[in-house]
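Quick illustration, no need to memorize.
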Amino acid sequence: MRLLNRRAPAQTPERSRRLGRHGAPWQEVFGEPSLARPTSQACTESQFHEPAYAYWCGQFRELPRTHRKQWEFCYILQALSVRGKLSPEALGLGFGVGEEPLTALFAARGVEVTATDLGLEEATDAGWVSTAEHARVLEDLNRRGICPPDQFAALVRFETVDMHSIPASLRDYDFTWSACALEHLGSVASGQDFILQSLRTLRPGGVAVHTTEFNVDDEGETLDNTSTVLFRRRDLESILKEATAFGYRCRVNWSTGAGPLDAYVDLPPYSSDRHLKLQIAAYVTTSIGLIFDKVGD
């Protein structure tokens, strides 16, 4: 166990200020992040106590835990739900899907999904097969029986895609997502490039939601050019600036929370609960979600 040595964020009412240009404002939001009204934001303790958290856990058939990886699924689902994207005949595109339950849950709601991941040989070399984080067959994406099999087969297709190079054929989706995948692309620069590439897959009015690792210390160095990289605020701000210049709306809350668990740092061997922040190498990291809304015509 370790306690994070930091000042608690000021408890001010939510407010925002404009930072962006070109008709697509990047807004910074202050106060505790809310799952009910998700922006780009970090995983914080208060979000686990909101009704939306228990609801989405029930939808993908898990009991709620204070674990950041479970939060990532709830966050992605909530961000898409409040934007009206989880409706029949919507088109969704997932990257690095592994065996996560999101594909099946989207299909259960009538969404037509293109699920993508590395090829088997590349995934084996990267270690994803041995840790059951890679889908070998389409049925692996519906292991929990969330979607009726016939409906799943009709709505979901699987493609092998390298996230370093998204095919030009993947275009005009209502939403795209990835959960804890882009930090494994080898470098901070590669993760940044992937996010910007993913935005090109959207039609006007579409939304991209990605979760990744967030180094809570923006002042020093970070983990880069390795199998898992950690993004600092400055690294993410670079993406936000480019995205807004290309016509995407972004709202971001940089708070890392003020609750007791927000100050708790999980150390190896990591817990299955009380796992919001953890230490990787010399750095303290948590999960962060990023939302990019493409301006409609």
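The radius of gyration is 18 Å.
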